[in-house]
Design brief:
The chain is 54% helix and 10% strand. It is α/β, with parallel strands linked by helices and 318 residues long. The structure holds manganese (II) ion.
Length: 318
């Protein structure tokens, strides 16, 4: 069975250094070494676990918290480095662009350059930019370009702003607060909320063909969709469709970081196997653990094939 994964990360030395203050000592040691490698180390781990293709993107916060000029330069540099690796291993690697979101027009141009010039499959955006979510119309040139190019945007979590950190996550030992705010809970509620904000702002009425991908088994959307649907009715929102319709027709989810059956069964029931794609979140999650779970998950043969590779092949043209 061919296996494709879509939320797999790297970074460049320049982005690592530029984000040093924000990362505050996170992502060091072996993790840092795995992130910077786009060659033998990554391929050996994929081979061992039975991962055929990684669609690779820059890890959060990428170039989104830098001044616009630096963001444009370091995004371009990262995309060019990734394109070189994809060219060196065309059957094994593919790319999602990193975008200089502090300058949305430049971000739209970089998306076009990377898709038409470098063969990238879309973009991955890490949550808010300086506290502004993508429902802000200033960012819509990015969606307009993605829609025109026919490529998806992967919406990935990032670190919360200081205000959110203080209001929602403070009050515990620093490492506990930091994890609660990110991979332990906060990343996932914030990213699910971010998708709802796109729906409520009318992004999908303006760009009906646009496809958004979210990781982590749907960032809590499958579990709470019926409630949102019931409360945020078209009468209340003024939108053309129900919230659930937008989520089922404009959103794909991946399994990145979530390798247990209960949330998978929930996502299958709510969204269906055509909207779910296998992913790992390398190097933060284990390729081997994820692949072992995929093989054992309670899926029909046909659904396992869709989730492992079929949906990604169709959506990304792989
Ligand atoms: Mn990730």
């Amino acid at each position: 069975m061919r296996v494709i994964t879509l939320e797999e990360h790297f970074w460049t030395g320049a982005l690592r250094d530029a984000n040093r203050a924000l990362l505050a000592g996170r992502l060091t040691g072996e993790l840092a070494d795995n992130l910077i490698d786009l060659g033998p180390r990554r391929l050996a781990d994929m081979d061992e676990a039975g991962i055929d293709v990684q669609v690779i993107s820059v890890t959060a916060p990428a170039a989104q918290e830098l001044d616009p000029k630096t963001s444009v330069a370091l995004s371009r540099d990262a995309n060019d480095q990734l394109a070189e690796a994809v060219a060196a291993h065309p059957g094994r690697f593919a790319g999602f662009a990193t975008l200089p979101t502090p300058d949305p027009e430049a971000a739209a141009a970089e998306l076009e350059r990377t898709v038409t010039g470098l063969g990238f499959k879309g973009a991955l955006i890490n949550g808010h930019t300086g506290g502004r979510f993508l429902d802000d119309p200033a960012f819509w040139p990015i969606f307009e370009r993605a829609d025109a190019l026919g490529v998806p945007v992967y919406l990935h979590p990032t670190y919360p702003t200081a205000t959110v950190m203080e209001a929602y996550y403070a009050g515990f030992e620093a490492p506990v607060s930091a994890t609660l705010a990110t991979s332990g809970w906060g990343w996932h509620v914030e990213t699910g909320l971010h998708v709802l904000r796109l729906v409520l702002a009318g992004v999908f009425d303006r760009f009906p063909g646009l496809q958004i991908i979210v990781g982590h088994m749907g960032e809590n959307l499958p579990f709470s969709l019926a409630r949102a649907d019931e409360r945020l009715t078209p009468v209340a929102t003024g939108l053309k469709r129900t919230v659930g319709d937008y989520i089922r027709e404009n959103v794909y989810i991946t399994t990145a970081g979530y390798f247990t059956d209960p949330p998978l069964l929930c996502a299958l029931t709510v969204l269906g196997a055509d909207r779910i794609m296998f992913s790992v979140d390398y190097p933060f999650s284990s390729n081997a653990r994820a692949r072992a779970w995929l093989d054992a998950a309670p899926l029909s043969g046909a659904d396992r094939e869709k989730i492992a590779h079929g949906n990604a092949e169709r959506l990304l043209g792989l």
